[in-house]
Amino acid sequence: MIRTAKLALAVVLLSLPLSLGPVLADDVPVEVLRRAAHITPSPRQVAWQRLEFTCFVHFGVNGFTDREWGTGSEDPKIFNPTQFDARQWADACKAAGMKLLIITAKHHDGFCLWPSKYTEHSVKSSPWKGGRGDIVREAADACREAGIEFGVYLSPWDRHEKTYGSEAYNDHYKNQLRELLTNYGPITEVWWDGACGEGPNGKRQVYDWDGYIKVVRQLQPKAVIFGMGPDVRWVGNEDGLARESEWSVLPEAKRGDRRAKDLGNRKYLVGAEKFVWYPAECDVSIRPGWFYHASQDEKVKSLAHMLDIYYRSVGRNSVLLLNVPPDRRGRFHENDVARLKELRSVLDETFRVNLAAGRPVTANSVRPGHVAAGITDDSWDTYWTTAEGVTSASFEVDLGRPVTFDRAMLQEQITTGQRVESFKIEARLGGEWRQIGRATTIGYKRLVKLPSTTTDRVRVTILDSRDCPTICAFGLFKASPRESE
Asked: Residue 178: which H helix or E strand, with range?
């Protein structure tokens, strides 16, 4: 009976019109894959993704108590960064290639870095500038002067505020949120980690996330909301590392499944009715701790470690959020600044010259209006895609002469969706095509380390894609000798 049923099913499948293509792909209906492939980011998500490398600044009373998490009972008088210099922060970020700075305007201890009208537990009760200073104001202004964007972290958990644990706290939190979103210019990212511990009265808070989101959307509609919001998700670790296959498209039901090992892969698509664009942000600190500790001055992450993080975050379809904690002076420590400069110098040496830029490209499938030249023309807006229904295709880049490289970069045009599931890179060596690299997803950007290769021609084959692939950029680079030091 079982054999008869299998034979009948085979006859039915063979009788289907060829134009329909496969019905299933790894037990996922092709129609589901195609629906997922056409989910696209909002303009605010695209703008955020293109930042690539951003800075987190954990600053507050914890740097003066030598703690990571404050208790909320700290005396504001301990906060006195006598050499505070927000311009030094912004200049260091800009020199490192960071395009956004997010400040911990309030951490779990409840101490506010701006003179909030809704609490005395803030800089106005500190000796810094006689209680007339505003850290958030100076940081926002310094960022704008330096040409980088500004964001805020406002901890929902507040271990100092007496209304915490009641509905009144939700009103209190929204009031503070309104202060930050109306008094400091454009905000690019609002950062919520969702921490929810006990307040000073031993109670926990039921957060009004929908209400908080509504305030952000009303006051800063271009800002993305991280973590507990709908725009950007936590990658699932604090090591700064994305998955080997990092998808920005998830089933809506999996929005909170932040620790899943293969989030977004085909097995997560089965049974999904709706998909969302929910890209990953990789947060990590340049030191072991998030706040400044003098004992960690010699424990700044090595150049090799930082490079590994960069390739496995920015190079895996994610944005890297690197924390740099100011010391008690109110400045980035010299060791941190030196590492940032070193990292930027090496990355510039590696990626300054794209050996494939402007080179001729041919492809074995092309859709009118989206020719292969869009891959190497140095424009993010133009892209190559295949003829309707073609999900596996290749393009070849004529380098004109033998060149040596060991890094490759690919980008999908994410405004059309994320589609590529796997690809391989080949070089023409000795008259034959030989594989030199292979990877899974691409998304906004994929960086691939390759063996040192010398050739005049490279071929990239899209092995599997959820719908017609859309590739907007391809690059070949020779890594700085300092990458291997």
From this structure: helix 167-183
CB 167 within 8 A of CB 91: no
Do residues 432 and 479 touch, judged by C-beta distance below 8 A? no
Three-state secondary structure call for residue 65: helix
| CA–CA separation, 128 and 125 (whole Å) | 9
Q: What's the CA gap between 310 and 235, in Å, rounded?
A: 14
**pLDDT tens string 425-470:** 999 999 999 999 999 999 999 999 999 999 999 999 999 999 999 9
Beta strands at 384-385 and 420-429: parallel, antiparallel or unpaired: unpaired
Which amino acid, one-letter code, is at 255?
R
Contact call for residues 459 and 396 (beta carbons, < 8 A): yes
CA 135 from centre of chain? 26
Closest CA to 197 of 165, 237, 162: 165
Q: What's the rounded Cα separation, in Å, for the pair 191 and 227?
A: 7
The model's pTM: 0.93
Q: Among all chains, which residue has been given the structure tokens 């060991």?
A: 406
Per-residue tokens: 301: 């992450």
